[in-house]
Every structure is written in structure tokens, then in C-alpha cells.
Amino acid sequence: MSLDVPPALLERAARGEATDAEFIDCVRQSLPYAWDTVSRIVADLESEESAAEFADNETPPPDETARGQLLRALASDSIRGGLERHFGVRLVFQNCHRVAAFKLSAVDGPTYRRFISVEGQLLNQSPELRNC
Q: Hey, which of 7, 42, 94, 125 would disulfide with 98, CB 3.0 to 4.6 Å?
């Protein structure tokens, strides 16, 4: 299961009344490793010292539970979209741990296009990541 949804939120969702804030809180509580990873790279991107168009994570998750959380968060259009709206960034994902947050102003720019390109994907592979 991707999210641990409280019964009251399930009831509101069934009535079409769930808010983005409630959804984001559910994601934060259900997928803490994914939340912390995205929060950290967004903080890096927004730091005063950063003039970069993006920040990324290249550290593999500590265990399979953490890896699963990151995969579930980024493989779900609604979860990824919620995270992007909440943090005001575009999230891109290359493998079991390499997630990047791009400033919205950089989306479709040359750095972004290179990161999401076929070549970018191929160059980010290694034998250790085959079964990640």
C-alpha cells in the first residue's frame, strides 16, 4: 500500500472533499523517507548559496523500505504532482534514488532537457543499480 490513509480522510475523499493539504500531510506521514529526501533537495535548491537550476539526490536509500517509499512517491502521478505543487518545483526521477528538483523557471531549459534525455538516463546507469 502506498499511503496510510486515515478513515476520516477516506470518507472526505469518497465525497470529493479531500484537500491538497490533507493529501500532502498523508503523504508526509505515510512516506517519511521520500518526504525527507524531497524536502532536503528542495531546501538545497532554495538555499541562499544556490544559484543552480536544480538540486538532486545521489545517495542510495538505506534499505528496501526507504527505496520502496521513494519509488511509490515518484511513480504515482498524484503523489508526485502533490509534492510538486506543495514545493513549487518539478520533480524528475532517473533510478531507484536519483531524484532531482528543478526550479519551475528551468523546466524545458537546456539543463532540464539534458537531465531527462535518453542520453542523461543512459549515462546515469551502473551495474550496481541494475536491481535497485
A: 94
Q: Is 103 exposed, middle or buried (0-12, 13-18, 19+ CB in 10 A)?
A: buried
Distance of CA 9 to the CA centre of its chain: 22
pTM exceeds 0.70 for this model: yes
Query: What residue spans define the domains of the chain?
Result: 7-129
CB 113 within 8 A of CB 100: no
Whether 92 and 85 have beta carbons less than 8 Å apart is answered as: no
Q: Which of 91, 89, 101, 94 is nearest to 117 (CA)?
A: 94
